[in-house]
């Protein structure tokens, strides 16, 4: 079967839903293609991370190497809504220093602020119209009332007692501190990108005659006609378009580019793929936040069943980054009934860079992902600092270290603390920069998100962020979808 559209968007995740919904809303005939299916109602409550478990139907479970001797399995959303349908619901914008550091013309914080405002209806702070939106499709709120966990205020009080400043609005673009986490949830109900931007039966947007949604359809490769991308191929389906936009996420997008013969020649040849267009940066030089969980027993009552797990966070400067390169996030809900609560301690501006390589042209084969975490002295030093501050917060809150948590003999000794971290090292699942924007030799897209050297092809997902932002990327991914709608329709 072959069909034609103005625009084909690959991937109905955070960015893809926003982009497709906005384009179709302007009368652009848009096809949205998603490998996963619809999320059954009530299947991914914001309070639960059940859909992130390996083997769950709503996620891709990628086998990965996190660091030397440390392997893992990494989830990503595989559903309408993508990772926004299964993630933790922490919805904090990238900070002004992230955009300044990327230094891509047209992508300063001031340039993107209108899109952050446009995407949201901030139920707490929407009246602050200089910083916030009050009519966007994504409803944002902070834990309050019955949905504020009993541990949240003691956590914030402990941070204050240790001298950290308060940051009551983590989306204000101000200096880092301790404050409640904004979430894309209202009354405990998740508002995924599909819920916000797609019409029924997938979401709550107004009906869109110009939108065609193909779910459960895995895109194999791009249709290349010389230097022009004419659409996508998925099994025996071909969807042609004036413009193709990849929003398949920071793993799916570089993998699809490589399968289509676009990427580093050595990687493509090793995987048995014919080189069509050399772009050395596809799948290389990306970053993500390394993290560890510090277990604790607060002795406080369990949070309300609908309360989001990640309630409040402390962001601070390790000494080299005033915008805050470290984070401690309170996970007030135990991962299993009767288990401990946790402080997630994370390095938010790592030096380490990862690689992604397909191993075969088969779209069902997982790419090889090597995070290369904690390779630098500075990363190891700052990771220790994150854990030590987490332990100080725990003590200041008068909570107990739970089984497996580091005691004084570990916290006071770099070698032992490194071993403790290595044994528990995980990732925050914030991969960014696997098809980075810019003009350098490793850049994959330009400031208009067009793939260098090809026509008819853009990328709009966290692949394009040159480095992982200092905060989780969910809000920034949706901003990218909003912005790309303007770029594609000539309004940006
Ligand atoms: C478990 C988990 C928890 C997280 N928690 C948080 C959090 O609390 N806060 C935060 O800020 N960030 C969080 N993140 C990260 C954040 O959710 C993502 O970075 C963001 O949603 C990425 O958006 P995206 O549009 O780039 O990609 P995604 O939302 O991942 O969307 C990509 C979509 O493309 C589809 N796709 C991929 N390949 C193909 C193909 N070949 N054909 C068709 N479709 C394809 C996928 O199925 C998916 O639906 C979390 C991520 C995960 C996985």
From TrEMBL:
Q: Does the keyword Flavoprotein apply?
A: yes
Q: What is this protein called?
A: GMC family oxidoreductase N-terminal domain-containing protein
Q: Does the keyword Transport belong to this entry? A: no
Q: Spell out the family assignment given in the record's similarity comment.
A: Belongs to the GMC oxidoreductase family.
Q: Which cofactor does it need?
A: FAD
Question: What InterPro entries does this protein map onto?
Answer: FAD/NAD-bd_sf (IPR036188), GMC_OxRdtase (IPR012132), GMC_OxRdtase_N (IPR000172), GMC_OxRtase_C (IPR007867)
Q: Which keywords belong to this entry?
A: FAD, Flavoprotein
- What species does this protein belong to? Pseudonocardia nematodicida
Superkingdom of the source species: Bacteria
User: What positions does the domain Glucose-methanol-choline oxidoreductase N-terminal occupy?
Assistant: 77-100, 249-263
């Amino acid at each position: 079967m072959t069909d034609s559209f103005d625009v084909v968007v690959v991937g109905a995740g955070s960015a893809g839903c926003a982009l497709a919904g906005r384009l179709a809303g302007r009368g652009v005939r848009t096809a949205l293609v998603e490998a996963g299916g619809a999320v059954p109602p009530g299947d991914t409550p914001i309070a639960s991370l059940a859909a992130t478990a390996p083997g769950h139907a709503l996620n891709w479970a990628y086998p990965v190497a996190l660091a030397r001797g440390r392997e893992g399995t990494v989830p990503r959303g595989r559903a309408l809504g993508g990772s926004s349908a299964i993630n933790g619901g922490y919805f904090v914008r990238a900070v002004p220093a992230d955009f300044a550091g990327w230094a891509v013309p047209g992508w300063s914080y001031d340039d993107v602020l209108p899109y952050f405002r446009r995407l949201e209806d901030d139920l707490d702070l929407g009246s602050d119209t200089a910083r916030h939106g009050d009519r966007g499709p994504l409803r944002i709120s902070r834990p309050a009332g019955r949905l504020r966990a009993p541990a949240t205020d003691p956590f914030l009080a402990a941070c204050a007692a240790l001298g950290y400043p308060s940051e009551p609005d983590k989306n204000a673009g101000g200096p880092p501190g301790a404050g409640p986490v904004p979430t894309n949830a209202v009354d405990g109900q998740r508002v995924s990108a599909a819920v916000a931007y797609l019409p029924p039966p997938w979401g709550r947007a107004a009906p869109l005659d110009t939108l065609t949604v193909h779910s459960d359809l895995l895109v194999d490769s791009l249709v290349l006609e010389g230097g022009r991308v004419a659409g996508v191929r998925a099994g025996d389906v071909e969807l042609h378009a004036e413009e193709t936009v990849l929003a398949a996420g920071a793993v799916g997008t570089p993998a699809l580019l490589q399968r289509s013969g676009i990427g580093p020649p050595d990687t493509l040849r090793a995987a048995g793929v014919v080189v069509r267009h050399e772009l050395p940066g596809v799948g290389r030089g990306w970053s993500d936040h390394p993290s560890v969980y510090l277990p604790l027993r607060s002795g406080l009552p369990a949070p309300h069943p609908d309360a989001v797990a990640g309630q409040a966070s402390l962001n601070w400067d390790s000494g080299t980054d005033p915008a805050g390169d470290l984070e401690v996030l309170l996970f007030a809900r135990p991962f299993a009934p009767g288990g401990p609560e946790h402080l997630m301690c994370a390095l938010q501006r790592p030096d380490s860079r990862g690689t992604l390589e397909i191993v075969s042209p088969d779209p069902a084969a997982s790419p090889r992902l090597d995070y290369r975490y904690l390779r630098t002295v500075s990363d190891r030093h700052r990771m220790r600092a994150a854990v030590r501050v987490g332990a100080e917060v725990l003590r200041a809150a008068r909570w107990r270290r739970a089984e497996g948590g580091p005691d004084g003999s570990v916290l006071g000794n770099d070698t032992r603390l490194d071993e403790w971290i290595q044994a528990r090292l995980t990732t925050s699942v914030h991969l960014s920069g696997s098809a980075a924007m810019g003009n350098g030799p490793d850049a994959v897209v330009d400031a208009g998100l067009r793939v260098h050297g090809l026509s008819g092809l853009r990328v709009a997902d966290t692949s394009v962020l040159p480095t992982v932002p200092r905060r989780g990327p969910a809000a920034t991914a949706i901003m990218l979808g909003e912005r790309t709608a303007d770029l594609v329709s000539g309004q940006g």
